[in-house]
Design goal:
The chain has three helices and seven strands, in the order E-H-E-E-H-E-H-E-E-E. It is of the alpha/beta class. It has two domains: 54 residues, 2,3-Dihydroxybiphenyl 1,2-Dioxygenase, domain 1 (Roll), CATH 3.10.180; 53 residues, 2,3-Dihydroxybiphenyl 1,2-Dioxygenase, domain 1, CATH 3.10.180.10.
């Protein structure tokens, strides 16, 4: 297996509402695809998919029941602490809940967290020690 993640698919309660959050609120580029049941966003080398929670669970042959902390967070790395605060502000305007405002963290960087409309946890981080993901131009 090659070391990469091709797609992250989130099982969401309302695909249309989540599309509005990610496309209109966070300005992610949506892949043009006609469907009310699934949506895709280009993440510069990886894709974000939105699929109805029950449909995604059925596709994977698992139960769609579950709540609370899912045991993972998605991360978005940026160039500066100021950009962390800017992205968190953008997410809040889009309807996100800020669970942790931007702040200096124990590992020497600066980060904060928000949750999307379905409670998926996103970290926005500036890591001065190394860059995660494709280098911005």
């Amino acid at each position: 297996m090659e070391p990469r993640i091709s797609m992250i698919t989130l099982g969401v309660a309302d695909v249309a509402h989540s599309v509005e959050f990610y496309r209109d609120g966070l300005s992610l580029p949506q892949f043009e695809f006609e469907s009310d049941e699934v949506a895709f966003f280009n993440l510069n080398g990886t894709w974000l998919g939105l699929f109805g929670r029950a449909s995604l669970a059925a596709d994977a042959s698992v139960s769609d029941k579950g709540s609370g902390f899912p045991g993972f967070a998605l991360a978005y790395n940026v160039k500066s602490p100021q950009e962390v605060d800017s992205v968190l502000s953008e997410a809040k305007k889009a309807g996100a809940e800020i669970t942790k405002p931007g702040q200096e963290v124990f590992w020497g960087g600066y980060s904060g967290y928000f949750t999307d409309p379905d409670g998926f946890l996103w970290e926005v981080a500036h890591n001065p020690h190394f860059w995660v993901g494709p280098k911005p131009s």
